[in-house]
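This part of the workshop introduces the protein records we will be handling. An example says more than a description, so a record of this kind follows:
>
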Amino acid sequence: MLDYKQATKPIYKNAKVLSAVAVIIAVGLIILFETTEQDEAAEKVIEQKDSIKSNSPVQQTDSVKPAKPTSVITPAGAATRSQSNISATTEQQTNTSQQANTAVENTVITNENALAAFPGGDDALKNFLLKNIKYPYNAVESPYTGKIEVDLLIEKSGKIGNITIYHSPNPAISTEIKRVIGNMPEWKPCVKHGQTVPSTVTVYFPFTYVGE
């Protein structure tokens, strides 16, 4: 009679082996499935990153190289000519400045019309007359005290030209007036439109009779 346990023992062993193999295969499939899902997820992430990179604007930076300084080599002759030109220009400017200063000085003197004047002004003229006029001794017979009106022609040079004496009481006083005029310094001539011109001035000569 066949022993049932002995007969089915190899089958049990084979069933255990098959179960173990099935478990291993199942675990392997699970691991493979999870790995596949992870790979797919990773690929999606990479694709999203690539898509973001492709959509993002690319900034271009133009690098500008600094320009190199250009060195200019000037020939020695050109440098000499340049220096001579500078010197000539400086001299011209100096001459122009001097001429301008001279013109200004002349303008200060001649830009306005000016009457003929005694050197030092009216006060100097009065002092000159009081100091130089001497009452003539030969005029005592007709004593006179007062002022004699005299017109003087002042030439362009400042010298005194014609003399006109008005209402002289006697010839002696007229002679004294001419003597004093002969001792006068040159006048400052009249100026019109920047040029000296002859002019006539009126001067009053004071005489005072002092009796004995």
Observations:
- Confidence is low (pLDDT under 50) at residues 56-80, 100-111.
- The first strand starts at residue 146 and ends at 154.
- The helical segments are 4-55, 76-110, 122-132, 171-182.
